[in-house]
Amino acid sequence: MTSIGTNTAPHVPVLVNEVIAALAIREGDTAVDGTFGAGGYTRAMLGAGAGRVIGLDRDPDAIEAGRSLVPDSRLTLVNERFSQMDRVLADRGISAVDAIALDIGVSSMQLNRAERGFSFQADGPLDMRMSKSGLTAAEFLNEAAEAEIARVLKDYGEEPRARAIARAIIAARPVERTAELAAIVRRAAGFRPGQKSDPATRTFQAIRIHLNAELEELEEGLEAAERALKPGGRLAVVTFHSLEDRIVKRFFRERSGGTPAGSRHRPVQTDPRLPTLERVAKPVSPTERELAGNPRARSARLRSAVRTSAAAWRRKGQ
């Protein structure tokens, strides 16, 4: 999620026009902005005529700032994870909504504040907690076993030198600052100034995703959106890397009745449950014009679909 550029400048979120087009907001609609951030999508929803927007964010700073950023009586802000949206809606007497937007990942507001510890662009404490509660990045790196650190780097950062970096982190303990961690990773990965990509990026991404259980949150959030949307309701999801996009792509394919092609070794498995999504749109990426103004949007991808009237799927085994 790239939700705010600086603490003072107004920010236009990634693919905002495309998201609002996919949501097809109509006058009086009730919508959910599941990742409020700096309120960019919310403003666009209200501007398109939404009668009510429920804005959720697990980051208490985003909710606190939002009360002054978007002072609109049609907006309700809730400090909660988007995977809990159907419960949040039920608590407020809302049985179903017309549109849901999700902008996955870390926000620019979080990245730009060194004290939050999400980025190595400026030195700060190794924190990385979106909700500002729970285990910090420093606590994880200083307490976890080498094998666990390597697994996190490999699974969530797709880091080819995960073992070497984990070993270097163990040897350098205690690690407390973002600049320290970035330097350790660069040495272990054999980074040379001038290389196209900084290996510290993958490590920071991996640790952040692990600490905040972001992929699990995304999976549960998509299921919550399925439960919360009324028939004909629209869902728009913006992702920023392949791990996220893969989850959304698979969910949309399954829920729209699509299955991978079978073979004589593995026949197609049909699912008896009725499709809950239709009109699944082709993925959309930012234009060159948008990228010129916001390079962080380069990897963004929007997927959208429309809710059918079929009952929401239960998880297998339930």
CATH class designation of the largest domain: Alpha Beta
Number of domains: 2
Percent helix, as a range, is 25-40%
Biggest beta-sheet profile: 7 strands, mixed
**Radius of gyration from the CA trace?**
20 Å
| First-to-last CA distance | 32 Å
Summarize it.
The protein has 318 residues and is α/β, with parallel strands linked by helices.
Describe this structure in words.
By secondary structure, this protein is an alpha/beta fold. The chain folds into 2 domains: 16-109 and 214-307, Rossmann fold (3-Layer(aba) Sandwich); 132-211, Putative methyltransferase TM0872, insert domain (DNA polymerase, domain 1). The protein has helices spanning 16-23, 40-47, 60-69, 85-91, 108-111, 137-143, 146-157, 162-172, 178-189, 200-211, 214-228, 242-255, 288-293; strands spanning 30-33, 52-57, 75-79, 97-103, 229-239, 277-278, 301-307. Strands 3-2-1-4-5-7-6 form a 7-stranded mixed sheet, sandwiched between helices. Helix 7 packs across helix 8. The chain is globular, with a radius of gyration of 20 Å.
Q: What are the defining features of this structure?
A:
318 residues; alpha/beta; Rossmann fold; DNA polymerase, domain 1; 2 domains; seven-stranded mixed β-sheet; 7 strands; 40% helix; globular; disordered N terminus
Write the layout of secondary structure elements.
Blueprint: H1 16-23, E1 30-33, H2 40-47, E2 52-57, H3 60-69, E3 75-79, H4 85-91, E4 97-103, H5 108-111, H6 137-143, H7 146-157, H8 162-172, H9 178-189, H10 200-211, H11 214-228, E5 229-239, H12 242-255, E6 277-278, H13 288-293, E7 301-307
Parallel strand pairs: 1-2, 1-4, 2-3, 4-5
Antiparallel strand pairs: 5-7, 6-7
Helix pairs in contact: 1-2, 7-8, 7-10, 8-9, 9-10, 11-12
